[in-house]
Design a protein that fits this description.
Blueprint: H1 2-30, E1 33-36, E2 45-48, E3 50-52, E4 58-60, E5 68-72, E6 77-78, E7 90-100, E8 108-115, E9 145-150, E10 164-169, E11 176-179, E12 181-183, E13 189-191, E14 200-207, E15 212-219, E16 230-233, E17 243-252, E18 257-268, H2 285-321, H3 328-332, H4 340-346, E19 355-361, E20 364-369, H5 377-383, E21 389-390
Antiparallel strand pairs: 1-18, 2-5, 3-4, 4-18, 5-17, 6-17, 7-14, 7-18, 8-9, 8-17, 9-10, 10-11, 12-13, 14-15, 15-16, 19-20, 20-21
The structure holds 2-acetamido-2-deoxy-beta-D-glucopyranose (8 copies).
EC number: 2.7.11.1
Subcellular location: Membrane
Keywords: ATP-binding, Glycoprotein, Kinase, Lectin, Membrane, Nucleotide-binding, Receptor, Serine/threonine-protein kinase, Signal, Transferase, Transmembrane, Transmembrane helix
Amino acid sequence: MKRRNVYANIAMFSKLVILLPLLISVVASQDTNFTYNGFRSVNLSLDGIATITSNGLLEFTNDTKQQKGHAFYPTPISFKNSLNDIAFSFSTTFVFAIVSEYPTLSGHGIAFVIAPTRGLPGSLPSQYLGLFNETNNGNSTNHVVSIELDTIQSHEFNDINDNHVGVDINSLDSDTSTSACYYATSGGFMNLTLISGHPMQVWVEYDGIKKQINVTLAPINVDKPKIPLLSLSRDLSPIINKTMYVGFSSSTGSVLTSHYVLGWSFKMNGKAQELVLSQLPKLPRGKERSKLLTIGLPIILVRLVLVAISGITYVIKRKRKFAELLEDWELDYGPHRFKYKDLYIATKGFRDKEQLCKVEFNQLSYWLYSMPNLLVFQHLVTLYLGEFVVRVISEMEC
Ligand SMILES: *[C@@H]1O[C@H](CO)[C@@H](O)[C@H](O)[C@H]1NC(C)=O
Ligand SMILES: *[C@@H]1O[C@H](CO)[C@@H](O)[C@H](O)[C@H]1NC(C)=O
Ligand SMILES: *[C@@H]1O[C@H](CO)[C@@H](O)[C@H](O)[C@H]1NC(C)=O
Ligand SMILES: *[C@@H]1O[C@H](CO)[C@@H](O)[C@H](O)[C@H]1NC(C)=O
Ligand SMILES: *[C@@H]1O[C@H](CO)[C@@H](O)[C@H](O)[C@H]1NC(C)=O
Ligand SMILES: *[C@@H]1O[C@H](CO)[C@@H](O)[C@H](O)[C@H]1NC(C)=O
Ligand SMILES: *[C@@H]1O[C@H](CO)[C@@H](O)[C@H](O)[C@H]1NC(C)=O
Ligand SMILES: *[C@@H]1O[C@H](CO)[C@@H](O)[C@H](O)[C@H]1NC(C)=O
């Protein structure tokens, strides 16, 4: 048994020795690598709602809802050598942010994508993330590998929730997915909200020998966590063609959302160069401010007017409500007369709960109220039934 193993190893080793120099020479010349700390004057292939802003943000947004867009590295990348059909190892990292019109609702997400074509023609927006359509979703002829940052739960694709990261192979039904979170150095996973508007970093690593893909997520400025968020053992060789395009796909749904990529680094057969976080473009704060001016200010003004109107109405009503109506009998008790306003407060607005009972007196109805917090009333009380008596003049309510 042992001996056979040794022979096998020697045989394999000799093969490696022969192949290795060849592999290296073929591979080295084709290894693509690029690092963009912001996209100012970067040549990307853009379509749909994808734009590069003046300060170098890659932005996917549109006022018109349910749109899609793509941003691809413009030239195809070799993912396999000419000798065999085994997909290379690769590594990529990018910083993204999702800013929504509403704090708890967004849509639909953004995905890192490896595809045989740049534009993903025929793909749909909204829940399809600009990746597939209803006829080709799940089709093995797609040859698409994607890491989705999905912010809407689409039950048709068995999404776990509206805040997840997934590895999608040829389909929006993720091969593996999990709630957005990251492994903190203090131990344990901490939840993240993809649509928080805060930049977050993603690392995607594929090991062509182990045939394993890892996805790691963390808030910006947090070092890459030691434990990945997702780990999928899957040979990408049958999915990935010899040359592929890499980039991003994003789509919007019914909620005005902006998806941003702040920086992106990629390397074939090696570790992607670290992004320089301090060099990344800033997210548009002005956008929120202009939103405040265009949407917020009119709302605030309308509210102010409403508040003013209701305030004036209140004052008028109050004045009327507490207007004194003096009756003959009241004049007899001149000094003991209480203002309607004081009685109103003491009886908590002549609340039913404060009523003790109803009494008839001089052919008029009187309600007895308890007013423990208005001792002065005791004086008035003795004049009547040894109880607190307040006459509620119902006409005054009108
Ligand atoms: C990245 O690719 C360029 C050629 O495009 C090469 O000169 C450079 O050495 C590569 N850098 C790394 C880190 O592989
Ligand atoms: C939104 O997308 C539509 C269709 O793609 C396009 O005509 C329109 O100019 C875009 N609007 C903005 C503000 O980008
Ligand atoms: C961008 O890249 C494409 C593909 O390599 C090329 O055809 C095009 O000329 C480039 N554009 C600019 C402005 O460099
Ligand atoms: C990708 O590879 C498959 C099978 O190897 C092939 O049928 C398909 O045409 C390729 N796609 C592109 C866009 O080259
Ligand atoms: C779906 O996408 C495929 C691949 O791009 C395309 O050939 C097909 O026409 C699309 N189907 C529909 C219904 O748009
Ligand atoms: C894949 O696409 C082919 C050709 O468009 C179609 O015949 C087949 O039914 C599709 N398979 C699935 C699983 O959708
Ligand atoms: C983290 O998110 C998951 C899934 O949404 C939830 O079940 C869990 O309670 C959250 N944990 C904390 C500490 O908020
Ligand atoms: C994925 O993560 C696991 C656990 O940290 C690690 O052992 C493995 O080497 C990683 N694989 C890749 C492809 O980075």
